[in-house]
Amino acid sequence: MVENTDPPSEFTDGTESLNRSEPLASESSSRTPGNSTSPRREPATGTSASPAAARPTADVGSLLGAFASGAPFIALVAAVETLIATVMLGVGLTVAPLVVALVTFAVYTVDHVADADADAASTPRRALLARRYGDQLMIAAALGYGAAVALSIAGGPLALALTLLPGAFWVVYASDWLPDAGRAVGAALAAAVPRGRLGAGVRAKVADGGHRRIPRLKDVLVLNSLVVATGWAAALTFLPVAFAGASVDPVMLVVFTYFLLRSFVDAELPNVRDVEADAAVGVETLPVAFGVERTRLALYGVDVLVAVVVVGAAVAGLLAWPLVGALGVGLAASVFITSLAGRVGDASILGVAPDGTYLLVGVVIAGVRLIG
Amino acid sequence: MIGLSPLSVALLAAVVTGTSGAILAWRERPDAGARWLVLLLVGQVWWTTFLVFELEASSLAVKALWYDVQWLGVVVVPVGWLLFALEYTGRDRYVNPGVVAAVCVAPAITVLVVAAGDPFGVVVANREVADTAVGSFLRVDPGPWYYVMAGYTYLLGLIGSVPILQLVRDDARPFRGQSAALIVGTAAPWVSSVVYLSGAIPVPGLDPTPLAFAVSGVAYLLALSRFRLLTLTPAPRRRARQLVFEQLHDPVFVVGTEGYVLDLNRCAAEMFEIDRRTAIGEAATAVVPRYDELRDQHGDVGPLSIVGRNGRRPYEVTVRDVTDDHGRSIGRLAVFHDVGEYLVQQQRLNVLNRVFRHDIRTETNLIRGYADRLATVPSDERALSVVKESATRIYELSERTRAASDLFDPVSEPPPPISVAELVTAAAADLRDEWPEAEVAVDDDLPDARVPATLRAVVGNLCSNAVQHNDADRPSVWIDASAANGWVQLSVADDGPGIDPEEREVLEQGTETPLEHASGVGLWIVKWGIDTIGGRVSFADREPNGTVVTLSVPVIEAAPTDADGAGSARTSAGESASETGR
To answer: What is the enclosing helix (H) or strand (E) of B11?
Structure first.
């Protein structure tokens, strides 16, 4: 199933952001340890836990790290995000969080099994499990996605389409399907046009045009993170709507924008850590193109934009102020994490912390609900 | 979220298993059959999914819409099954764009007609909503094309099942398990469909086929996970066996029970210069070398001397019956093993053994005996002469043994072919130089045909023997050569006492015994050299006295120099194989 392989990049510590702009592992199994390939989020702990460290602390930390780097944790975060979206949308509780969690679990389990060898250094416990129980995990992942699809059918055609969206985005985003299709069309065109009608250069370009003219989206600056963010924002926003059977409402646009922008930040944050590795393999990211300092400023700008959208929605009466407060807590945490980009030694923070902001928002919302 | 009917809930089980199976199969690309299994399972999931939507829709129009959409999955399933079965079982040569396009014609027509609204009711003549205890679905009156597609679906299913069924009795347990699971997986919906079309379903209008997809999905999942379907496929076996048959360096013929050639491998065609297209179907006696002698044989036969592309070679032929699963003979297999190299090796060992055991030992004893005499009578000239002669013979023996060794060195690059005229002229000149008293006569009309350079040593030995063992005062040697039908006949005649019949017999048999053996290694060099180049040597008496040794040697064709000339020098003796070898 390997359709493309990136050249090996430099060793990184294996941590990933929730919205890391990388292809699925199965598409790039040769990547270096820690250069995770999941299209959305990959909170992996670093390998800094030394065996010589204090035993109890190290064990607890190691276990937490193993959990945080595993597909179940990512699925849990995705489910919490869907719950946040459900609250923001003001629709009733549905099975949407479960569907999103199942899809996330399936995608990342496949990713971890396929990348087990590459992950051995960065996430040894996860890699060990993935190697030892690879077949069982793959069956679990397949059944998980199957169950998600079956549940989504109960939500109607729109819910089904939204559930299939992550898979479709992945095909367009990470695999060589798009360049291959381009190549096939180019080759067909080159074969169809009689010899002599096209110059040699043009003929070669057309025949190979798929690769040159239609690159993988993951290799395109900004678009790579934007595609990932759009896919997940669409699923998070519209799945609860589809399951609830709600009608179109302006708040949907607010929720979609919120998750789109937040996911974009989460996707670009780990790129700061991986700037050298990405530059080595030719992946265009904001830090590679504009440097770490400018990237940090740009991400601040995106966070400010999120704040403007949320506050504006509150002013317009689309969101309740307590909810805006809860979202603000998460936003503040995001700004803080952004400020750490390029300034902290333990780069794993940039992988795990963005996930933590959603859990924080979820806890605050639950607290607000409980209080009143 | 819509409330689901019990039937819809049951159908979702098929969606879960089908989707899971499709994902697992997708992972196995590009293994044989993976993409078609994905297509099959996606078709099943598609059909089932839109049946759920149909069941849960509230109006006839919406139900009809989802019903029509289901057709895409309906027509994809048999296509996916057939192509999967062919590719998975190693019959991928049939899975080409032409075949794929052909099997997609009827499904494409169906989808187009349905997409166009089926204006003439050829697919569905009438449809109405049926509210039943298990759900509300569309009850349709099938049109004529509906039955055509049903028949087409069964036909593709049957064709696809045949190669899968063959694996049920396979020797390998994984393939038996896989095929059994696949048969269950495909039989369940097919049986359901038959039951539906026969009207045996208690709920009128309910097609339970998608429900059976749950069984299919479980079976396919089992095959994928438990029996490693697609990870462990039988597809390469078929190709591998064909490859072994084709690439075998021994000629192989398959002959039917009626005595006609059914198949032969590439080596057989090349070695015996046979056109495969015309040979198949011909009588074995006209195609297979020496088939008359093989017809009633079993096991190893031979060695048989057969002329082929490389000249005359000894072949040991293994004849085996080809039997079916019931042990009945359905043909015969004849495998020709060229044992020339092996026989020569064996002969060389025997001769070298004899050289050390007999010739050198005899000479050594002679030297020791006369050395003792010289110790007591240092002035004995005769004893001194015998010692010198004996030592000279040992030296010559070692020289000839080394020449033989060089001659048959398999590692060294063979020298380029030489012309007969050049070879004979050089041999005569050498003979005159070495034996000035000898009369050497050479035929004036020597052919210019090219022969293997190995022949130089062979002819040199023959000429040398003709003079060395000649008791005439003025030994005479006649060298003659002619070429015809791809062969060169080269004869060396002398007026000596002739070769001992026992020695000739030893050479012809190729085996020495302690009591029956040749003298020296000169004639052996002749025989081995001729055998190596695929020629033949014969001995005859010359009147009034002497011997005529005749060599038959294949002519070497010049290497082609045209653009596609990839060939190197090769003998043309095979062209006359029909005359000499069969």
So the answer is: helix B6-27
- Residue contact B27–A26, C-beta within 8 A: yes
Which structure tokens are listed for A146? 């199957």
Give the distance from residue B11's alpha carbon to the nearest chain A alpha carbon, in angstroms: 9
CA B157, CA B362: separation in Å to the nearest integer? 82
Q: Which residue of A has its CA nearest to B231?
A: A135
Contact A153 B21 (CB under 8 A): no
Please tell me whether the overall predicted TM-score, pTM, comes out greater than 0.80 for this model. no
Among the partner residues B4, B19, B29, nearest to A146 by beta-carbon distance: B19
CA dihedral sign, ordered A243, A246, A248, A251 = negative
B51 and B151, same domain (yes or no): yes
> Could you tell me if A143 lies within 8 Å of chain B, comparing CB atoms?
yes
Chain B residues closer than 8 Å to A152 by CB: none
Q: Does A160 contact B49 at a Cβ distance shorter than 8 Å?
A: yes
pLDDT category at A216 given cuts 50, 70, 90 is: low
What single DSSP character describes residue B320? Answer: E
CATH number at residue B224: 1.20.1070.10
List pLDDT tens digits, range B414-466.
Answer: 678 888 888 888 888 888 888 888 888 888 888 888 888 878 888 888 888 88
Instruction: Specify whether B360 is located in the same domain as B442.
Output: no
Rounded to an integer, what distance in angstroms lies between the CA atom of residue A36 and that of residue B125?
55
Give the C-alpha separation, A39 to A231, whole Å. Answer: 10
Q: Do A155 and B4 touch (CB under 8 A)?
A: no
Q: Tell me the Ramachandran region of residue A308: left when phi exceeds 0, alpha when psi lies from -120 to 50, beta otherwise.
A: alpha
Does any domain span residue B459? yes
Give the integer Cα–Cα distance in Å for A337 and B442.
104
Nearest chain A CA: its distance from B34 CA (Å):
11
Residue range B202-229, pLDDT digits in tens: 777 778 888 888 888 888 888 888 888 8
Q: How far apart are CA B514 and CA B498, in angstroms?
A: 23
Contacts of B27 in chain A (CB under 8 A): 1, 26, 110, 138
Residue B242 lies in a domain: no
Domain boundary among B237, B260, B280: B237
Rounded Cα distance between B485 and A313, Å, is 101
Count of H helices and E strands in chain A?
17, 0
Angle of CA points B170, B173, B174, to nearest 5°: 105
**Cβ-contact A188, A144 below 8 angstroms:** no
In a domain, B194, yes or no: yes
Domain boundaries, chain A: 30-36+68-175+216-371
B310 compared with B111, residue with greater pLDDT: B111
Shared domain for B254 and B148, answered yes or no, is no
Considering the domain architecture, whether residues B56 and B146 belong to the same structural domain is answered as yes
Q: Could you give the CA distance from residue A98 to residue B507 in angstroms, rounded to a whole number?
A: 90
Identify all chain A residues contacting B16, using CB atoms and an 8 Å cutoff: 143, 146-147, 149-150
The answer to whether residue B202 sits within a structural domain is: yes
* Domain span holding position B561: 415-582
Which residue among B206, B237, B268 closes a domain? B237
Same domain, B533 and B493: yes
Q: Phi first, then psi: what are they for B552, rounded to 5°? A: -110, 120
CATH of domain A30-36+68-175+216-371: 1.10.600
Same domain, B15 and B136: yes
Domain co-membership, B228 together with B363: no
Average pLDDT rounded to a whole number, residues A1-18: 35
Q: How far apart are CA A256 and CA A261, in angstroms?
A: 9
